[in-house]
Structures are given as structure tokens and as C-alpha cells.
Write a structure and sequence with these properties.
By secondary structure, this protein is an alpha/beta fold. The radius of gyration is 17 Å and the shape is globular.
């Protein structure tokens, strides 16, 4: 069975409630000039790479990383005998701006499937929608400039109506609009079936519990299976 690899970062970030450091994440890190390390181990096999690039949702805030949806996806891939290695590049507190700043370094390795899960913190902070859209577009462009054959999956997000209905609606529409424009795969709403349910979220009401992460993993797999499964197996999975 393969172990999910995880990037670790030395960054000074001011966090919102939704963006705190995961208290259960403990790793041995080695500083580089870029301030970034690949912890635990290097990829030494010929597996294809799936990179989950996101914020505290990807990082499994408040949980052991083994309970997070990237690791659950790795377990699913292993159970199906699919030759993929998942890398968890989730960073608590990350905005689309921060993600864009660190993406070039993350893409120093070959990536076959890139899952982009960013934007929620932008919405919670009321960052201008144009800035969020532009940052996501630039990240998609950068991934393709590194390797035009990398398959991109964009995770759709929604936010509470704290910023007003117009902002909330336009924010939600960013993701399907970008997916259509760039012809990338879209997870309609990453937290479908989890958001707003107290039993499936931690006390902050934002981050999924271990049970919630299992539902999130299913939301991801519903789309990711179209990317990683052979065509005939995908058709069988959809039946």
C-alpha cells in the first residue's frame, strides 16, 4: 500500500478560524532555499502522480492526515490496483494568491493529475472576486505550461451568504465557469453533503470530521474516477 506524501512549508501566515494550523500534523522537515520540503520520502517508483493542491480542507485540519480525503483516495486507488501516488499539498490558511506564489516550486516534479482546491479562504475573507478568478486561471495556465498533458480537476466551492447574496452567487459561479472555459474536470461542490451539518463538521462548523472527510472523498472520487480508470471500467462504475 502506498503512503500519501505531503509537502511541508515554512511560511508566516495570519490565520482566520478556518485557516489554523493542524494541531495533529507533525513532520520532520528540512529547510530548502525555497522554504519548502518534500517530507517523509521521495517517489521512487514509476507510479503516476496525483497532486492535491489546496488549503486546510485538503490538509485535513484538526485530524490525522490519514483521515483526510487525499489519503482516502490513495486507499481507493490501491484497492483497485491503480498505479498512482497521491501527494497532499494542502496548506492551512492558503488563499488563491498564496497558492499561486508557491505553485511553481510545487510543480518542480512531474504531475499527471492536478486537483486544485483553493478559493474558500478568499470567499471567507471577502477578497475581490476578480482577483480570485484571475489567480485560479493563472494556476491552471501554469500547470499547463509545465506539462500540457497534465489532467486538471477543479474543486468547486460555496460560502455562507455573509458577504451578501450577490457576492455569494458570483463566487459559486467562478468554478463552473473556469472549468468550462478551460475544459477541465469539475467537482461541482467539494463539501456536498457535509457543509452545514454539525454532525459532520468539527466544532468550528467549517472543517469536516473524519466521517465528513469520507463523504468528501466520495465527492472527489465521483469525478476523479473518470480521470484514472480505463474507459470500460469507468462505464461499469457509472452503471
Amino acid at each position: 500500500m502506498h503512503k500519501v506524501l505531503k509537502f511541508s512549508y515554512f511560511l508566516a501566515v495570519f490565520f482566520l478560524l478556518s485557516c489554523g494550523e493542524n494541531p495533529k500534523e507533525k513532520e520532520v522537515e528540512t529547510t530548502t532555499e525555497q522554504g519548502t520540503t518534500l517530507a517523509d520520502e521521495e517517489i521512487v517508483d514509476d507510479n503516476k502522480v496525483i497532486l492535491f493542491f489546496g488549503n486546510s480542507l485538503t490538509a485535513a485540519y484538526g485530524l490525522d492526515t490519514e483521515d483526510g480525503f487525499p489519503n482516502l483516495i490513495q486507499q481507493r486507488l490501491d484497492s483497485l490496483g491503480l498505479k498512482y501516488t497521491v501527494i497532499n499539498s494542502g496548506l492551512s490558511g492558503e488563499t488563491t494568491s498564496g497558492g499561486l506564489n508557491r505553485l511553481d516550486w510545487v510543480l518542480n516534479q512531474d504531475v499527471d493529475v492536478f486537483v486544485l482546491e483553493l478559493g474558500a479562504n478568499d470567499g471567507l475573507r471577502g477578497i475581490p472576486l476578480k482577483e480570485t478568478r484571475n489567480n485560479l486561471q493563472e494556476m491552471i495556465d501554469l500547470v499547463r505550461s509545465k506539462n500540457e498533458y497534465t489532467k486538471i480537476v477543479l474543486a468547486g466551492m460555496q460560502i455562507p451568504p455573509n458577504m451578501g447574496q450577490a457576492y455569494t452567487t458570483e463566487f459559486r459561479n467562478i468554478f463552473p465557469s473556469l472549468a468550462e472555459k478551460n475544459d477541465v474536470y469539475l467537482i461541482p461542490f467539494l463539501l456536498e453533503g457535509v457543509a452545514g451539518n454539525p454532525e459532520l463538521n468539527l466544532e468550528d462548523g467549517i472543517h469536516p470530521t473524519a466521517e465528513g472527510q469520507q463523504i468528501v472523498a466520495e465527492n472527489v472520487w465521483d469525478v476523479l474516477k473518470e480521470v484514472v480508470l480505463p474507459v470500460e471500467e469507468t462505464e461499469m462504475a457509472l452503471d
